[in-house]
Amino acid sequence: MMTSCRNLDLGTMMMACGCGRRQFLSLAKTVCKFGSSNRSYGGLVGSCKAVPTKSKEISLLNGIGQAQTVTFDLRQESKQPISLVNLFELVADDLQTLNDNLLSIVGAENPVLISAAEQIFGAGGKRMRPGLVFLVSHATAELAGLKELTTEHRRLAEIIEMIHTASLIHDDVLDESDMRRGKETVHELFGTRVAVLAGDFMFAQASWYLANLENLQVIKLISQVIKDFASGEIKQASSLFDCDTKLDDYLLKSFYKTASLVAASTKGAAIFSRVETDVTEQMYEFGKNLGLSFQIVDDILDFTQSTEQLGKPAGSDLAKGNLTAPVIFALEKEARLREIIESEFCEAGSLEEAIEMVREGGGIRRAQELAREKADDAIKNLQCLPRSAFRSALEEMVMYNLERID
What we know:
It is a single chain. Helix content is 62%, strand content 10%. It is mainly alpha-helical. β2 and β3 (37-44) form a beta hairpin. α5 packs across α9, α6 (128-144) runs antiparallel to α7 and α11 (247-272) packs across α12 (277-304). The longest helix has 28 residues, at 277-304. It comes from Arabidopsis suecica. Its EC number is 2.5.1.85.
């Protein structure tokens, strides 16, 4: 893909960056061309302000610190719809190699496992997590002076996709879902027993490849993700139909189930680029905030999209008693909503009534604000990276997510 950039300089100044680098910062507006679309970004180019990371349990509701001075109006940054195809065009070759390797990596020990793997990998999917790994890998590699990605970068992307796929197989069993990405799920085709074993095998295979990377920091990071998956499922199962669920609880559960893997992916990529610790921590925070924003948007769409658009019944999480951000916000104003939920929708038409209350009671609007807040934080986390096509693609990933609810 051809990528070109031009700067309209408005002045320069010398600053010491939070990453320990001294550099000229250009007060510029950079216009980048990706394929057929044009994007513009304004602000301080290459600026960074690292902030000490808080523990994940207490920092989920907070920003990355008060020292940030650069702000972005995400709704005005991009004037044209963003597509994942364009976003990942920069790493299309990397993703193609990953697709070619996935089936062989799973192994050929058992024909049933191969069939299960072909079913889930063959169903396609956006490959968003490995795409993020490759984008962050390239962006941080430029910062570290690496001319190309390492074998560790590429193996990490494959491991992340295997772990994500294993979690999907298990999720479909727990949710009793018979379709995913327009195809029958593994447990629908092969039975629950085979699906559970296929997911376990994929987790184990990913762990084996992870151990062979021989990087203790990354091993600990990814191992925590697998633990977080289980913690998230337990936390969700123990709070079904609980109208006293707090926003903090929801965000922590969302971190465990979604954002933990994204955060580990982006931090792991930075670690293998061998950049400074404050940059790896900012990449972790970027992945966490992006992952949370994605989950919040998904939870909004559960109320705003049709069954055909979702590929599952609208309001399905609410029907199962899983209370998400729009519901938690709506419960603050709608006493009747609490009654309906606590009755577990025993009356005919009560689910539809509850869904309408969430839509009309301000829950959607406040959840949208929360998603944008996390997106703002994610953009700020990227300021420690040098301005490049890869950083711009990461910024557009954040905006792509918000466009889903515009």
